[in-house]
Amino acid sequence: MSLDTAAVRRIASLARIRLEQPEVVRMQAELNGILGWIEQLQAVDTTGVEPMAGGAPGDPVGDQPAMRMRDDAVTDGGTPEGVLANAPDRQGDYFLVPKVVE
C-alpha cells in the first residue's frame, strides 16, 4: 500500500496538522516507509504463537488468568504533599490559582 499526496493531506487535515508542500512530500515518504514495515510484519508466519496479552479484562488468554480489577472507589489519593510538591502556588492542601473574571 502506498499513500499519494492527497491521502497525506487528508490525514494531516484529520489530525489538524498544517503541512506545506515540502513537508507533504517528506511526510509521504515517512508514512510509506511505516506502511512498508507494517507489510513486512504482516508477512511473518505467526502460526502456533500464542498472544502475550488479552484484549478484555474478563477474557483469559491461554493459561493466563483474567486481569484483576480494582474497586471503583473515589479517593483523595491520600498523598497531598506528593500531589502538591510541584504546585507553583498552594494554600494548605489546595492548589492556589489566579482569579479569573470575564
Strand content: under 5%
Largest sheet entry: 2 strands, antiparallel
Q: What's the N-to-C terminus distance? A: 52 Å
Report the CATH topology name of the domain at 5-42. Answer: Histone, subunit A
- Fraction of residues in helices? 25-40%
C-alpha geometry: flat
What would the keywords be for this entry?
102 residues, two-stranded antiparallel ribbon, mainly alpha, 2 strands, single chain, 35% helix, Histone, subunit A
Explain how this protein is built.
1% of the residues are buried. The protein is mostly helical and 102 residues long. A two-stranded antiparallel sheet has the order 1-2. The mean pLDDT is 85. It has helices at residues 5-14, 21-42, 80-83; strands at 90-91, 94-95. It has a domain at 5-42: Histone, subunit A, CATH 1.10.20. A hairpin with a 2-residue loop joins strand 1 and strand 2 (94-95).
